[in-house]
Amino acid sequence: MPRVLIIKTSSLGDVIHNLPIVHDLHHAVPGLTIDWVVEEGYVDLLRLHPGIARILPVALRRWRMNWTSASTRHERAHFRRELREQTYDFVLDTQGLIKSALIARMARLSPNGKRIGYSFRSARETLASLFYQRRYSINERSHAVERLRSLAAQAFGYTAQPKPEFGLRVLHHNFNWLNLSHGQTYAVMLHATSRPEKAWPDQDWMMLATQLAKANITAVFPWGNETEHARAQLIVQSATGCVAPRLSLAEMAALLAGAACVVGVDTGLTHLAAALEVPTVGIFGATPRWRYAPYWTPRAINLGHDDRPGVQPACDEVIDSLNLLGIRVPAASIILK
Question: Which of 143, 161, 170, 147 is nearest to 276 (CA)?
Answer without folding.
Answer: 170
